Amino acid sequence: MTDTRVGIAGAGGRMGAALIRQMSATAGCRLVAACERSGHLAVGRDVGDLAGLGALGVAVSDSAEGIFRSAEVVIDFTAPDATASHAEFAARHGVALVVGTTGLGPAHEAALQDAARKIAIVRAANFSIGVNLLLALSERVASTLGADYDVEIVEMHHRHKKDAPSGTALALGEAVAEGRKVSLADVAVRGRDGITGERKPGAIGFAALRGGDVVGDHTVIFATEGERLELTHKASHRRVFAAGAVRAAAWVKGRPPGLYSMRDVIALTGGA
Ligand code: NAD
């Protein structure tokens, strides 16, 4: 089999560096192109130098559309507006997409849905295997324990993170809501302050902490009178997200159009 030709959008970012390192250590995938936003310091530099690997012969471009001309799959960990426009390029050039960007609003989601009519997209709020198991477990525990158990989802991330709660926390909320057969939008409580009154039965609460260099901690708490069950995942290195995203890139090549999840990639179905 020939190598999968992969492009990276957002090569100068934290995940960009982790992806370049992961690609260089993965057989069967070849990094052929990379881009950054215009004016970013990484533009024009060799991707290998950015990731501390020495020159790899691929320069970072400021033309996002350019990378869709040479890659078969593009991995995008950038920002919501950038991801929406990359989805359009991907559909135009028939290139599969792996999206890790979080904090997408309804217009960004619609852009992904549109593109997924023409190309295959794997989108995940979290590409780690452990978190994807946590999603399946949370759904199963929620359906087993029922609504008498109050659910609170607590996350902590590094000081540079721009969106809150994290995309993973929201995905965990969706998993719990799915287990309870309710809509998350109807029961979510996103942060509390002041005289909030008593907790509403059935609410799914979120709390977001920010500080230091925390890569990503998530805990789903199921609390009732007399006991509390806590499911926790802690990522200590971005390599786990990069490894999952590169695995998704190899998986998505040649798939029919559609919006896929990490559950599809690692074949996790139903309860874990
Ligand atoms: P970062 O800010 O370090 O990197 C993002 C990079 O994208 C920056 O270098 C920025 O200049 C670049 N960028 C912005 N607009 C661009 C454009 N139009 N074209 C090309 N590049 C552009 O952030 P990060 O920590 O690497 O995270 C990036 C995104 O990935 C965030 O949304 C974050 O929440 C998400 N994330 C997801 C996972 C996951 O597993 N799904 C894991 C970690 C981070």
Q: Would you write up a description of this structure?
A:
This protein is α/β, with parallel strands linked by helices and 272 residues long. The chain has ten helices and twelve strands. It has helices at residues 14-24, 47-50, 64-70, 80-93, 106-115, 129-145, 167-180, 184-187, 239-252, 262-265; strands spanning 4-9, 29-35, 60-61, 73-76, 96-99, 120-123, 150-157, 188-190, 204-210, 216-224, 227-235, 258-260. The strands form two sheets. Strands 3-2-1-4-5-6-12 form a seven-stranded parallel beta sheet, sandwiched between helices. Strand 2 (29-35), helix 2 and strand 3 form a beta-alpha-beta unit. The two termini are 32 Å apart. The relative contact order is 0.16. It binds nicotinamide-adenine-dinucleotide.
Write the layout of secondary structure elements.
Blueprint: E1 4-9, H1 14-24, E2 29-35, H2 47-50, E3 60-61, H3 64-70, E4 73-76, H4 80-93, E5 96-99, H5 106-115, E6 120-123, H6 129-145, E7 150-157, H7 167-180, H8 184-187, E8 188-190, E9 204-210, E10 216-224, E11 227-235, H9 239-252, E12 258-260, H10 262-265
Parallel strand pairs: 1-2, 1-4, 2-3, 4-5, 5-6, 6-12, 7-9, 8-9
Antiparallel strand pairs: 7-10, 10-11
Helix pairs in contact: 1-9, 3-4, 4-5, 6-7
The chain binds nicotinamide-adenine-dinucleotide.
